Amino acid sequence: MPESGSAESAKLSIVLGTYPHTEALKSGALRSPRLALDFVEMKPTFSAFKPMVRELRYDACEMAIVTFLQAKAAGKPLLLLPAAMLSRFQHGHMLYNAERGALGPRDLHGKRVGVRAFTQTTGAWLRGVLEQEYGLDWRKVTWVTFEDAHVAEYRDPKNVERAPEGQTLTGMLLAGEIDASIGELSTDARLKPLIPEPDQAAQAWYRKYGVVPVNHYVTIRESVARAKPWVAGELYRLLSEAKAASGIAKPGAIDMFPFGCEANRKALETIVEFAYRQDLIPRRYSLDELFDRSVRDASP
């Protein structure tokens, strides 16, 4: 980690997506007298995840939670900050081709479902919801993928296969080469949400479980956090202030970008359970294991 100024200052290379709740930081409107942030732009943001977990290329990086959990399982020296960067209800992100006949969430056994990678966090959330609400057994589905896991040590289950080179999710879905897809939306009138009335279904799911499905948090290299123990807390403070400056947390509305260990407990416990049940991680991790003590002290 490069340093600037005295021993009590630091500079971090960092990858963050451009969102309303990061705008104040990325524009320079919000600064720290101690911590300078050197933003590395990666588009799409998820293209930074692989070099972060495989090479520790940045000092800090936005990261999909399943990627982080797999990195933890593989012993990667990364710490998690409980600062949600990207969250969404996933129910509308699974499509089927209505031109080829009706298909519902209870009809997937024996079918072929496309997803960018088996390890993609959106896929993990959706498979978990489908198991909870519709009895899905993910082992009875063939998952057609386009990429490897970000974490090189992970190996896909036997019921995962690779799409032919040059194919796309939407193209395969329209051609009938897969029965449903996860992760991409489309304006093609033939492609319909697999879960009927997905917005209403998502709200009903939230009322039932009280979980905000967070896709991305922020990670920091362990060596950076150990070298200057105040850095993780200062980065968390800056992220928190940027969120507050955005005004996205509306009184009475669901906070789609929870900050703090306790505020993220339900989301993390749920995705850990989903990931474990889907053979994405070897065991369940507790909240205490996910957050280093220095992080918990900074973000209760």
Q: What do these coordinates show?
A:
The protein has 300 residues and is of the alpha/beta class. It has 2 domains: 10-88 and 213-298, D-Maltodextrin-Binding Protein, domain 2, CATH 3.40.190.10; 94-209, D-Maltodextrin-Binding Protein, domain 2 (3-Layer(aba) Sandwich), CATH 3.40.190. Helix content is 33%, strand content 18%. The protein has helices spanning 23-26, 49-55, 65-73, 121-134, 169-175, 198-209, 222-227, 231-246, 265-277, 287-290, 293-298; strands at 10-15, 35-39, 60-64, 78-87, 94-97, 112-115, 142-145, 160-162, 180-182, 191-193, 214-221. The strands form 2 sheets. Strands 8-7-6-9-5-10 form a 6-stranded mixed sheet. α4 (121-134) packs across α9.
Number of strands: 11
Helix content: 25-40%
CATH topology annotation of the largest domain:
D-Maltodextrin-Binding Protein, domain 2
Radius of gyration: 20 Å
CATH homologous group name of the largest domain: Periplasmic binding protein-like II
Features:
five-stranded mixed sheet, 300 residues, D-Maltodextrin-Binding Protein, domain 2, 11 strands, globular, alpha/beta, 18% strand, 2 domains, disordered N terminus, six-stranded mixed sheet
Give a quick rundown of the structure.
With 300 residues, the chain is an alpha/beta fold. It has helices at 23-26, 49-55, 65-73, 121-134, 169-175, 198-209, 222-227, 231-246, 265-277, 287-290, 293-298, and strands at 10-15, 35-39, 60-64, 78-87, 94-97, 112-115, 142-145, 160-162, 180-182, 191-193, 214-221. The strands form 2 sheets. The protein has a 6-stranded mixed β-sheet with strand order 8-7-6-9-5-10. It has a 5-stranded mixed β-sheet with strand order 2-1-3-11-4, sandwiched between helices.
